[in-house]
Design goal:
Elements: H1 2-22, H2 29-67, H3 70-85, H4 94-107, H5 111-127, H6 137-147, H7 155-163, H8 173-195, H9 202-223, H10 227-255, H11 260-294, H12 297-311, H13 322-327, H14 332-346, H15 351-362, H16 366-375, H17 385-409
Length: 412
């Protein structure tokens, strides 16, 4: 899928540019395309290079939390809920432990740990699957929760926003947290309907009701503030929560006698490696998007969408972030490049730039997760996994738009 998208950007850009040259007489269009090739590749390298410091910082902090036992703490906290959501899994089965650890890693933004734990969980679930080529209910629900997983620390998004000049890179944290919870909840509920899960037990309702009350309270509180006060208080809350989480990691490390400094250095080394590794992918996607934009194809697409939205009498500012939303279910790197392109074009602190950041963190890459997790155990019939995963994606995207208007729409 990613290969087709990448090639498609170049092919569509070339033929639109050819049309402009031969029919409209635009002699400069191919010059703009070639210039976009060089400018985008240079920009991608500079962005990736600038990410190094921030990436090493945050992955160092994450390693401290991991070594201090934060992942184990989240795992124990989620275990009672998972026993109710997956009634077909025997008590104390290894699948439950792998699933809860996978979710805990996702919450902390530990992608390197989350993926192998997710594959391990899918393998353990496959041992309980009576039809090895068909996804079981437990496997489908696990995948849907994974594709819309709540993320407490969207480190990569903060990092890109900082690199692209955001005045407060973490100002999207609260709306992003609300958005990703809504997407996860919708995915869980729609899968529960398909599978006729008994979600109304006391334990499940305590978890979901408590989380929903907290998120609803945040929305209700911030919605009654004026634009300036909402921005100020949201920024304060975001920074206090993130700073508090860092201090919590450090205090847990002291309590458990973990060498926090050495753990940080180990994580920071991984962060440096990650920043370097990302360069080829970032160059590939930003160059393709740059050519696509330079040909006029992206403006043509967005212009058509904007006109349609305005024709119905709606505000159309969200349209500029739509490419990130459309790319997200198919390609994480593609959506990331779209987010960067939106922030470069409109500004990191623009409405579109903030919305693209929220969308990027609202869901996972559904088709990639489906291919990796089901492919690892040979599942061929995915049943309702795609439908439920895409419902969660749509819910997350719609929630992202709503939260962007709530938190940033008044001041835009």
């Amino acid at each position: 899928m990613l290969n087709a998208l990448w090639v498609g950007f170049f092919v569509v850009a070339f033929f639109i540019a050819l049309f402009k040259l031969l029919v409209l007489g635009d002699a400069a269009v191919f010059g703009a395309l070639v210039k976009a090739l060089f400018d985008s590749s240079k920009s991608a390298f500079e962005i990736a290079l600038g990410l190094t410091g921030v990436m090493t910082l945050w992955l160092g902090v994450m390693k401290v939390g991991e070594r201090a036992g934060m992942l184990d703490l989240l795992t124990r906290g989620l275990a009672p809920l998972f026993k109710r959501l997956f009634p077909d899994i025997p008590a104390n089965h290894p699948a439950l432990g792998a699933m809860t650890m996978n979710m805990g890693a996702n919450m902390l933004g530990l992608d390197n740990a989350a993926t192998p734990l997710g594959i391990k969980a899918m393998q353990e679930l496959q041992k309980l699957n009576p039809n090895p080529d068909t996804a079981s209910d437990a496997q489908v629900l696990f995948l849907v929760i994974n594709t819309a997983s709540v993320t407490l620390l969207p480190v990569t998004i903060f990092t890109f926003r900082a690199q692209l000049g955001a005045a407060d890179p973490t100002d999207v944290f609260v709306p992003l947290l609300i958005t990703t919870y809504i997407g996860t909840l919708c995915g869980l509920l729609v899968t529960g309907l398909f599978q006729r899960l008994h979600l109304w037990n006391r334990v499940t309702m305590a978890y979901l009701g408590g989380a929903t009350a907290l998120i609803g309270g945040l929305v209700a509180y911030f919605s009654q503030l004026d634009a300036a006060e909402m921005t100020r208080q949201s920024s304060i809350l975001s920074n206090v929560l993130l700073s508090g989480l860092i201090v919590t990691f450090l205090l847990m490390a002291v309590w458990r006698r973990v060498n926090a400094y050495e753990a940080f250095i180990e994580g920071a080394k991984e962060g440096f490696h990650t920043a370097v590794t990302i360069i080829p992918y970032l160059v590939a996607m930003l160059v393709a998007i740059g050519v696509f934009r330079a040909s006029g194809a992206l403006d043509l697409l967005m212009g058509g969408m904007r006109s349609a939205v305005l024709a119905f009498g709606f505000d159309a500012r969200w349209v500029d972030a739509l490419p990130t939303a459309l790319m997200k279910p198919f390609s994480g790197s593609g959506a990331r490049a779209m987010m960067i392109d939106t922030m470069q074009t409109h500004g990191a602190d623009s409405f579109a730039g903030r919305l693209a950041s929220i969308v990027q963190g609202s869901t996972e890459t559904t088709f990639y997760v489906l291919a990796v997790y089901f492919g690892a155990v040979g599942i061929k019939r995915v049943r309702h996994a795609v439908t439920c995963g895409l419902v969660a994606d749509v819910a997350g995207i719609l929630a992202a738009i709503a939260m962007a208007y709530l938190f940033f729409g008044k001041s835009a």
